[in-house]
Design a protein that fits this description.
alpha+beta, OB fold (Dihydrolipoamide Acetyltransferase, E2P), five-stranded mixed barrel, 6 strands, 22% helix, globular
Length: 127
């Protein structure tokens, strides 16, 4: 009977563990490509489970495009020197990111150069 209970516990654990692993997949990003994006911060969302940086890029013809840059959780970003006030709307920044594979305007955050020249990066250690 104990073996059966242990087996059911193992199955239940696996059912909850697999979604957590899938959640941390970066498969949607093309990690063979890196983009440098110069734009203006629209919003910085210091939220769990992932923080988000919304930046607006303007092309030479004046057309604007909003990019969504996915980041890690605030706890992981804090270890890399971030605070909730590291960027604010209106900041002119340069962001380095892996683009989304389907070409939509978004990416996986790698680093940022702030208006004062400071560079903040993310090491992608687990929290």
């Amino acid at each position: 009977m104990n073996v059966k209970a242990l087996g059911l516990t193992g199955i239940a654990f696996a059912m909850y563990a697999f979604p957590a692993l899938a959640h941390h997949s970066f498969a949607m990003f093309d990690q063979t490509k890196t983009l440098e994006l110069q734009g203006t911060v629209k919003e910085f969302l210091w939220t769990n489970p992932h923080s988000w940086l919304q930046i607006v890029l303007t092309d030479p013809q004046g057309k604007t495009t909003e990019w969504s840059i996915e980041m890690s959780a605030p706890t992981a970003l804090t270890r890399d020197g971030w605070t909730a006030q590291s960027v604010v709307p209106g900041d002119k920044v340069t962001v380095t990111a892996h683009p989304i594979r389907d070409g939509s305007p978004g990416g996986q955050f790698l680093s940022i150069i702030l208006p004062n020249g400071q560079r903040l990066a993310h090491s992608y250690r687990d929290p």
